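ok here's the first one, seq then struct tokens
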Amino acid sequence: MPPVSATLRTALAAMSVAGAPMTALGEPEGDGLYSAAQAARGERLYEVHCAQCHGVRLEGASAVPLAGAAFAQRWQDPGRTVDDLFYIVRTLMPYSEPGKLKKPEYLDIIVYLLKVNGYPAGKQELPLDPAVLKKLVLKPPS
């Protein structure tokens, strides 16, 4: 599991102190951003609703790639948060029917994108809480 950026670790630690249902990264057992079960749900949803355009491996097909350097270039700019990514995906996707899914389903897909891009899993699910999502700056896992 790749290490997590100091900015992300600090944000998660602050959320933990504030009572959000997540623990800080970097603790023993390597708690991360989301649970493996949440990422698995997101993968299934991605396969049904996203893979046709974004590719089975998120490599891009008729739409932009959602993994690797392309994802990093687009989303790991200073100040971009998980909330920004969540907003774009839930308001614009799927392209043919924006807003078709429920918010928890969109969040699970975002979690799957984070997993594929090297962000670590932990024991807790990433909560559907804008205050939490806004604190998670998309920095490359280091």
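and now the second one, same deal
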Amino acid sequence: MSIILETKRLLLRHLKADDLDELFRLYSDADIRKYFPEGVLTLAGAREELGWHMDAYQQHPQLGLWATIHKETGRFIGRCGLLTWEINGVSQIEIAYLINKVYWNQGLATEAAQGLLRYGFEKLKLSRMICMMHPDNTASQRVAEKIGMTLEREVNGVAAENFPTLVYVINKPSTL
């Protein structure tokens, strides 16, 4: 198992083919996918995304979406990680988090995001990271704020999508 990072309650590791069923459970749940422009995904869509991430690890193993494992139970509870986006011609690294709704309201998204923030600043030596979410997704906004991010702006989608998106940002503190 290729562990990328570990927090108090979570392990984040590369996704693997065996994760398809768990990933599909997440991606086919309308509550979990409520604020995604493409909505829920079919099994074929989940398989395609899983393959895309697994292929991307070959070139950039330090980036991508990773299986998020709950240490206490050993269960796959989400997918979190660092993604590259281009916004208005500028490359950005996004802290992305998606947790199974069974585990909502336990601080796990915040814990994952905080771990990703440290990983990005300390290990990857990034100077800035972002989080993106739909303006109605107040839970994701709270996670971004809890890890020290501030709202920078609203854009009308990324990657040619016409979808309102808030962009939260944090710059590397001078103490790191």
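notes on #2: Residues 43-59 form the longest helix (17 residues). The chain is about 30% helix and 35% strand.
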